[in-house]
Amino acid sequence: MNLQKHVSLNLNLRGLGESPTLAMSERCRVLRTEGKEVLNNSIGQSPFPVPNSVVKALKMYAREKTYLPVKGLPELRNAVADYHRQKDGIDASADNVLIGPGSKILMYLLQMSFYGEIVVPTPCWVSYVPQAQLLGRQVKLINTTYEDRWHLSADSLTELCESEHDTYRPRIVILNYPGNPDGGTYTVEELKNIAKVARKYEVILLSDEIYGELHHRGEHVSIANYYSEGTIISSGISKWCAAGGWRLGTFTFPDNLDWLLAAMSDAASQTYTSVSSPIQWAGVTAFKGSVDIERYLWHARRIFSKLSNQCAEMLREAGARVHDPEGAFYLFPDFTPIADNLEKRGINGSVELCDRILCENHVATIPGAAFSRPENEFTLRMSYCNFDGSKALAASEAIPLHEDLPEGFLDHYCAKTLESTKRICDFVRPRD
Ligand code: PMP
Ligand code: GLU
């Protein structure tokens, strides 16, 4: 018997590697066990506790133990549909919703079930492209620019559809906003323009809105408003509800993509079966929402907004260009303006940049290359969630909602994140 792994490994897995966000966190963990003091700004994980009412629901349903329907607990599918009806103004019912153990696996099942082109604007979240690779497929990347605020434009989508041999070939475009890694969001005008092109060329949109509730002003708008018949909304409880480890994600389909939902559900039935029962029951409380959850989100946004703006300002002073943060918990500074200085120090791209920042200044970040950006670009993603969210939340709750957070709040409650930013700045700041 030949047990040599390189002979029998599925070709699609060769060179795939571990997800860079998860791998970097593991690297931090190992460095810490070696006694090194490393600040982890690599993983995107909410620092806040799961809202009390949702934890309470999980406790209450801890005895639920049966397999649930593959598509999801009916009460949860209903709550998710209601949520999107109310928040996004779309006409969804429980039948339009598919529940999975995280939106990540739903994206994988989507790529597996859909026989057509997958288009992704870059910078993009680290797993869309490797998921295609796992399936032996290729993704069509559209590189955006800093000047375009890292946004896909309606014009570039038109250009892609027109330039292909088969203009109306089946296509899915993955949009993600508020965006990981860029922390920006699309304007209503931009969304309307993209929706118009998608409708014209019959493109399906997968709108990854997992950070929707973390729009810093609470003003997230779904593109499904403007293209309801062709948009799948991806959401879940990992980010706004701070429950990434609970593994619950949702896809909401328009009626005429019911065939895709059915195919994915069949695939789910042959793979993960269904999401853990207590988690789905707790998810009902999360998606139904409450005044308490709204207040919790309000505080989370106020803290993220103030902190991210201060970090962005520090990075700019050190020579980076970075857009004003609008949502999620990431900044994506571009050090191109000081590239000469970095090159003189032997740094030729984002992987070296992040490696040197980690080795010399002990801050873990993720290179732009992991987000499908060119290797020689000087971009990186830093998450700004390495602070004690429970303490920061409690302190914010004591400050009236209509007031700004006072001077000194960040120094006190988000000191670690400011220290990470300072260390990154110290590293990149031009030296003679
Ligand atoms: N999309 C984006 C943009 C993400 O950052 C993540 C990371 N959590 C996911 C999808 C997957 O989230 P989950 O599987 O936890 O729902
Ligand atoms: N989405 C998170 C991030 O980008 C981490 C979790 C994951 O990638 O699955 O950091």
Structure, explained:
- The protein is of the alpha/beta class and 432 residues long.
- The chain has 2 domains: 184 residues, Aspartate Aminotransferase, domain 1; 223 residues, Type I PLP-dependent aspartate aminotransferase-like (Major domain) (Aspartate Aminotransferase, domain 2).
- Helix content is 42%, strand content 11%.
- The protein has 16 helices and 12 strands.
- It has a 7-stranded mixed β-sheet, sandwiched between helices.
- Strand 5, helix 8 and strand 6 form a beta-alpha-beta unit.
- Helix 11 packs across helix 14.
- The radius of gyration is 22 Å and the shape is globular.
- It binds 4'-deoxy-4'-aminopyridoxal-5'-phosphate (PMP) and glutamic acid (GLU).
- Glutamic acid (GLU) binds next to helix 2.
Question: Helices and strands in order, then pairings?
Answer:
Layout: H1 5-8, H2 20-33, E1 39-40, H3 52-60, H4 74-88, E2 97-100, H5 103-113, E3 117-122, H6 128-134, E4 139-143, H7 154-163, E5 171-176, H8 188-200, E6 204-208, E7 231-236, E8 249-252, H9 258-269, H10 277-288, H11 291-317, E9 330-331, H12 339-344, H13 350-361, E10 363-364, E11 366-367, E12 380-383, H14 389-397, H15 409-413, H16 415-428
Parallel strand pairs: 1-10, 3-4, 3-5, 5-6, 6-7
Antiparallel strand pairs: 2-8, 7-8, 9-12, 11-12
The protein binds 4'-deoxy-4'-aminopyridoxal-5'-phosphate and glutamic acid.
Residues 44, 102-104, 125, 176, 180, 208, 210, 236, 238, 244, 249 line the site of 4'-deoxy-4'-aminopyridoxal-5'-phosphate.
The number of distinct structural domains comes to 2
Helix content: 40-55%
User: Over all CA atoms, what is the radius of gyration?
Assistant: 22 Å
| Total DSSP E strands | 12
